[in-house]
Design brief:
It is a single chain. By secondary structure, the protein is mainly α. The protein has four helices and no strands. The longest helix is centred in the middle third of the chain and has 29 residues. The two termini are 25 Å apart.
Amino acid sequence: MLFIFIAVCMAFYFLALKGEGSHTAAGLALLSRGYGGSYAVAWYGIRINTYANARTAFASLAGNPGRGEYSLRSGMSVGLFLISLNWS
């Protein structure tokens, strides 16, 4: 919702107050792609890391602390997703 509010304010400023053309609005829409990507990576990272931390904690409670690779694998997964999203 915050992004939508900011987008509306920026569009109003550039289109109504400054009198810029529609190419400016298209540029703003293109640059806002990064917001969606950041949101997707954050959602995925929080979800995956929460599951990985729970699995690591339960493995430790079961007396098998060597199963800590869950956290390592989840971190690599989120990092790979972030890099592949930013390079596309």
